[in-house]
Write a structure and sequence with these properties.
With 127 residues, this protein is mainly alpha-helical. The protein has helices at 7-26, 32-52, 57-76, 79-82, 89-94, 101-126, and strands at residues 2-3, 53-54. The longest helix has 26 residues, at 101-126.
């Protein structure tokens, strides 16, 4: 693993970031915001990391999945309150405040999608 700027991943990160912000600001439904937004956040983190690191894509996808699971379990133990940040809107937004098994499933589905896309793209480049 080494530092390396990847323009394609960075542009995807920017696009995903804008999408996530638009969802947070303008979508208040029972599917896109609570489910699709959580699904996309794994892509967002993955693309951000891959923008700056040249690393094994599958190991990095797994590391992002572990990170997402860790954040979700921090919600389970109410980490924001434990560290005294319950009044911080930023901390409550970034770390979150409500644990959900459904979120774990969405993160895993995003991981499967990322690894499948990377595998497909690597095969199509080698043809």
């Amino acid at each position: 693993m080494k530092l390396n700027f990847n323009k394609k991943y960075f542009l995807l990160f920017i696009l995903l970031f804008i999408t996530e912000v638009l969802i947070a600001l303008y979508v208040n439904d029972s599917f896109i915001r609570p489910y699709f937004g959580d699904y996309l956040v794994v892509f967002l983190v993955y693309c951000f990391v891959m923008s700056f690191l040249k690393a094994n894509k599958y190991k990095m996808a797994l590391a992002v999945l572990v990170f997402a699971f860790t954040v979700e379990f921090l919600q389970y133990v109410d980490f924001v309150t434990i560290v005294g940040l319950q009044k911080s809107r930023l901390a409550r937004t970034v770390i979150g405040t409500s644990f959900s098994f459904e979120d774990l499933l969405l993160y895993f589905l995003a991981y499967l999608t990322i690894t499948s896309l990377e595998k497909y793209l690597s095969k199509s480049r080698s043809i």
